[in-house]
Amino acid sequence: MNHIQQGDVFLERVDSLPDGAKRMESGVLAEGEATGHAHRLDLSHAEVFADKEGTLYVRASAPAVLSHEEHRAITVEPGTWRVGRVKEADPFSEAVRQVRD
Predict the structure, then answer these.
(1) Confidence band, pLDDT 50/70/90 cuts, at residue 92
(2) What gap in Å lies between CA 40 and CA 45, rounded to an integer?
């Protein structure tokens, strides 16, 4: 599997971390603006990194659980993953916006 999605967060498998990526202390991949709920990665077998643009990456050495208060927990398989947010397009207003939990 090369893609994983939980609500408005998706992970895409990549070959490696970008040069200069810094390890983060938190397992929060995204927070809901309206609810305060979070997509939270269990850091027992995984680490979260950020590149210089702020894009997050996950490196899992073993299966790791990604949880959220409004979605079922999912398993992130071992490997390196880039974290993104789902976007939606409104063809009537020609606007593209980030989906928010």
Answers:
(1) low
(2) 13
